[in-house]
Design a protein that fits this description.
The chain is mainly beta. The chain has one helix and six strands, in the order αββββββ. Strands 1, 2, 3, 4, 5 and 6 form a six-stranded antiparallel β-sheet that branches.
Length: 113
């Protein structure tokens, strides 16, 4: 797969995606990835397990927020992420971040400290 910068990268297998996202959450590191055909930069705050599938709770830094809207986490199914690259750029968690799960039967796997 070719990226905007012209580089070629093979999609990471799901185990590699999971390990990359765990590294990013633990180190508060930004991630670049493709999700639903769109390249984006994510600040992953949590990993959760929902119905046997793993999701990243992440701030999409490429999203445009309305001036009256506070940035919040979106949930990205790891199986839908490709071209995942953990950067060396650290992020600050969202102000007031709490490591709670969005749905009652979700299980928290990992969260930024």
């Amino acid at each position: 797969m070719q990226h905007k910068d012209g580089s070629e990268r093979a999609p990471l297998p799901s185990d590699a995606v999971r390990l990359a996202m765990m590294e990013a959450v633990a180190g508060k590191l930004l991630v670049t990835a493709t999700y639903n055909g769109r390249e984006m930069t994510l600040a992953p705050h949590t990993l959760i397990l929902r119905h046997g599938e793993m999701y990243a709770g992440a701030l999409n830094l490429d999203k445009t927020w309305r001036s009256d809207e506070s940035p919040r986490l979106g949930y990205f199914k790891l199986a839908g992420l490709s071209d995942v690259t953990v950067t060396r750029k650290q992020f600050e968690p969202i102000a007031g971040f709490q490591d709670t799960v969005p749905q009652a039967d979700d299980q928290l796997v990992l969260a930024v400290a």
